[in-house]
Design goal:
It contains nine helices and no strands. With 213 residues, the protein is mostly helical.
Length: 213
């Protein structure tokens, strides 16, 4: 009986290792595709890839995170309002799902803030007062959870750069955050190769604007 139990234990360990290896391989394939995107159609295909992983690996938050990221980025690039709304509905659904899996992950709140920023572009005059506040609250939560994460500083700085000074924005408010993000990007080390690492290049562009002032 002990031999059977030991054999079952070895088999279960081997199965788990194989499953984890398959998950990581699928994730790396998706990240390679994400890093080589050339068209809007590519974004949709990559989002589909990560959603399939998320459906199979319901305890993992990263597949849903990257699918949501694709939809948020797509929404910024999309010109048609109805299409933007549908993309943001998808990203919101995914963000809600992964927050249930990992409610204390800094990266999720940073992306949630970016998601709220995308809502502003739907109707800037009416949405900016509400969603700018929501975005900054998400960025602040992200910073609380991990003060070494550069993405909330970068995104909050970008949000403030394009917010009128009358509403607390402008270059003076934005540039210290962008400079802080630049410092953190230079020090940032991922926990593993599947974790997010985007934003450095565009933050450098924003810093250039700050330095030109």
């Amino acid at each position: 009986m002990k031999k059977i139990a030991s054999l079952l234990f070895v088999i279960s360990i081997a199965f788990c290792a194989h499953s984890q290896s398959g998950y990581e391989s699928a994730m790396r394939e998706g990240l390679d595709s994400l890093n080589s995107i050339k068209s809007l159609e590519d974004f949709q295909q990559v989002a589909n890839h990560f959603e399939r992983i998320a459906s199979a690996e319901k305890s993992e938050w990263l597949p849903g995170y990257y699918a949501a990221y694709c939809y948020v980025v797509l929404s910024f690039k999309e010109q048609e309002t109805d299409r933007k709304e549908k993309l943001l509905e998808k990203s919101e659904h995914l963000l809600n799902q992964i927050l249930e899996i990992n409610p204390d992950e800094s990266e999720i709140f940073a992306l949630q803030g970016m998601h709220y920023q995308a809502f502003i572009s739907l109707d800037p005059q009416n949405n900016a007062p509400v969603y700018s506040v929501k975005a900054n609250q998400s960025f602040d939560r992200s910073m609380e959870l991990n003060s070494g994460n550069p993405r909330p500083y970068y995104l909050k700085g970008m949000n403030l750069m394009y917010t009128p000074e009358a509403f607390g924005g402008g270059m003076k408010s934005a540039c210290p955050l962008i400079a802080k993000a630049d410092e953190l990007f230079s020090q940032f080390e991922k926990e593993n190769d599947l974790m997010p690492d985007w934003g450095k290049d565009y933050n450098a562009q924003l810093l250039g604007k700050c330095n030109a002032e």
